[in-house]
Amino acid sequence: MYLAFGESVAVLLTVLLYVGFVALIGLWGSKISGYKQPYRHYGLEFSPRSFNEFLQGWGLGCVTLLLFYGLQLSLGWLSSQAIDLPLGNGTLPQRLLPAIGVHFVDWQGAIAPGLLTSFGVGLAEEILFRGWLLSELDRDYAPRQALISASLVFAVLHFIKPLAVILATWSQFAGLVTMAIVLVLARRRCGNRLGMAIGLHGGLIWGYYIVNTTHWFKPTGTVPEWVTGISGNPIAGVVGIAFLWAIAYALKKLPQKLL
């Protein structure tokens, strides 16, 4: 299909591959590993408890990005740009939100597509990396070894790029490893259910998708790009990685009722 139709079917092929993968891990879990409920063993649980954990994770991801950008705006490391906000068939008066530099055209190309993309990516990657892969590693290794191994695999597979790009975005690797550690902790905190990990992953992607698509913020040049995030990527900067470690600490140390 790719040879015949080119890049136009790239997304469709990715979706089909993940659907095939999800089907195969069910067979793997039942026939090879001997699980009676393989998908539940890999963390997929459709229950009110898991849904609540998903919402908590999504909210945590969105709030984290709000704090991330708000801190840098207050320090003068970022500046806000003109963005668009819809209201029915028209737009909001410009005088309503002057403080954040909103100029209001149309956000339809950011919010809804970003929501679908972030949920899809969060669900697919969590099933793969924190679901099947982590569960398989947990069978043969100590929890810390499994966590480190799964996190490194996640980062490496996201960092298969030309050497020039790798050198230019070196800090992103550390961010990917840290993000993977956070998502492993999110699953383990919830009794190995994936709800919170899917929500947290999706919430972070959704917030970044909106900001990146609308070009809402840009660095002021006050501090180096590796501080705010190389190429605008939050997890490719020191501040973003610090926020991720703060989430990791909260997942590890705070009582369940406080998170």
TrEMBL record:
UniProt domain CAAX prenyl protease 2/Lysostaphin resistance protein A-like: residue ranges: 110-203
Protein's UniProt keywords contain ATP-binding: no
Alphabetized Pfam families for the sequence: Rce1-like (PF02517)
Domain of life: Bacteria
Protein known as: CPBP family intramembrane metalloprotease
Alphabetical UniProt keywords: Hydrolase, Membrane, Metalloprotease, Protease, Transmembrane, Transmembrane helix
GO biological process, one term: CAAX-box protein maturation
GO molecular function: endopeptidase activity; metallopeptidase activity
InterPro entries (UniProt xref): Rce1/LyrA-like_dom
Species whose genome carries this gene: Pseudanabaena cinerea FACHB-1277
TM regions (residue ranges): 12-30, 51-71, 166-186, 193-211, 231-251
